[in-house]
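Example with several molecule types.
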Amino acid sequence: MNTHAPESLQEAARAEWSRLQALPQPLKPRDRLAIPPQEIPAQDPLARAKNMREVALGYFEEQARVEAARCLQCKNAPCVQGCPVRIQIPQFIAAIAAGDMAKAIAIIKETSLLPAVCGRVCPQETQCQEPCTVGKSLKSVGKAVSIGRLERYAADWALAQGAPEAPAVAPPTGKKVAVVGSGPAGITVAADVRRAGHAVVLFEAFHKAGGVLVYGIPEFRLPKAIVRAELDALRQMGVEIRTNFVVGRTRKIAGLIEKDGFDAVFVGSGAGLPKFMNIEGENLVGVYSANEYLTRSNLMKAYDREHATTPIHAAQRVAVLGGGNVAMDAARTALRLGAQEVHLIYRRTEVEMPARVEEVAHAKEEGVQFHMLQNAKRILGANGKVTGIECLRYELGEPDASGRRRPVEIKGSEFQLEMDAVIVAIGNESNPLIEQTTPGLAVDKYGHIVTDEHGRTNIPKVFAGGDIVLGAATVILAMGEGRKAAAAINEMLKG
Amino acid sequence: MNQILFKEQLSPEVFRMRIRAPLIAEERQPGQFVILQLDTEFGERIPLTIADADPAEGSITLIFQAVGKSTKLLGQMQVGDKIANLVGPLGRPTHIAKFGTVVCVGGGIGVAPLYPIAQGMKRAGNRLIMVIGARTKELVILEKEMRAIADEVIICTDDGSYGRQGLVTVPLKELCERAPKPDLAVAIGPPVMMKFCALTTKPYAVPTVVSLNTIMVDGTGMCGGCRVTVGGKTKFVCVDGPEFDGHQVDFDQMIQRLGSYREQEKLAAAGCQLHGEAVQKGLQE
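Resulting structure tokens for the full complex:
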């Protein structure tokens, strides 16, 4: 991915738009396929690696309309099949091409509650953009219509128009619903259930609402102001947000129903305990889970050393273990906290990396050093503190159950790297808190809550969704699960 | 919510506060803790054990030592002030049962979280022996409360200004040598004290519970900052603890991890002290 100055991108798009206007209308598929994919303007890589501001700046209107003109408006809309919440993608893109942004956002909002969030953090290249006919015709998913960027454009346009009116809420039903966790699943359930006229209390364990959107995903990828706007919309609808409330401890689920009179409870408590590698040296000072590192920097604002009380190590050489989006977030955060060198260590190759292509590209542009086919064998220390890591080299062997070629260690290939911090970003196990404190709740062998296709658990009135059910998933999947559960709750509370 | 209802200075650095928190007061059990934060934007989250609770009043009691930036600021707060954020009760409650004879060993401020545990143990029908340790007489806390529930109270000070002179491990060893020996020991205090209590009881095979107060961010299992090695396995203090088998805890590693941010903490606390002194000076003028 190249980065061009934003102004030059805008100028090129303006010229392209004029060129398209001169062609016979409506455009032929051949003309549409010839339109160059629009690059999203971004902060200069070297400058942004030293600040927390958002990296991707969003399309100019000219760019959005040019990009929208690339859409072939396929009758069978394969993109919609790729979207977990089935946004009517060709329709909203046609509205953008026509310059009717209000219509575009209205179409998106019929199905998605968090377009400004999803437009930024969804893995579009494996969802809606993966089956896109344009990408297929040009033989590269990277050349598919940038549906995510267009979604973001429409959502940001709407935010720029000022706070929209809160969605209509049905007359009070006298029923009340507890929503546990204020991340993507919880926000979705709260909105959908509130719309049906039920009272909703959204419980959050932290001192600020938003869940992973505020403690996990960094400001440079998802500005907090966007999450705040979504939460403000909930408040305007009459949803009560109660922070500093750990369901399972401050009140057990049974207590919410029996003592506090809730008619239904939705559990969206999210991902849980960070996984560690169980290697020597993992509890040395200077070894962090990505969750801890990101929470200190994001939610607790440790990056603002002048004002924040929460400390974080000012490490010069940082190793990040893992290859997912969280690993990219941690590596890029480390740069912004002043690290001279950040080394990302992953035991497979870049092709197998679960991180979004865009995040990988951004990390590389900013100077994160990638070490593929390597894995930490132990963490070295002196006086209880990290001094380095010992790695092993790997090669790809036969495909495993997942179809990916299994990394096989090369015997005797150990080598050491000097480090003063190590961040482990290899995923989460389920959080045991709800299970521990809710007798009889069915969970699977990984500790994830078992639900039916409507999000119902085995306990009457108790529903669940998001990472606590799915394991590590995405914002959009959590939202999709939330919508289903909310529909089931509304159905149950009817009449 | 979170309003300070009562404040008392127990010693130059130690404060007792009753704080309005009806839900926590109602749900808390011995062994549990809270996390508080004094500023929503920039404050740190600090875990503090619950010393007592009054469900009728809807209050919890915290006893804390003003040593870090946030505890110093908390110590400067007055009755009527509100704590920005307070969450709990967190952690697994103490396993209270009838064991027989239970020795509770509290060092310094560690006597505070021990109080509800001692109460619970007494109520469950145990013979309760209380060992209280402190650097000096004025740092001995909750003596009256403990005397009211314990069958036997032993006080030790490092300087001999009150009770016996010496460390709590000396009477603890004597108790282990008695026949019958104690059925359970519960030790809460500075990490070094807990480490040596566990080493003291180990040869006598007296089961020993310790309560760990490590660095935490969320307190609900999400960050893993509080992890300790127990019996060779990594455990999270916030969801697996805070109480563990003292004979299995890797105290040396835990002590190292507690020092993760010593430099930053010293700077922050010094800054706070300057700020506090400036405020005090301003008030006097």
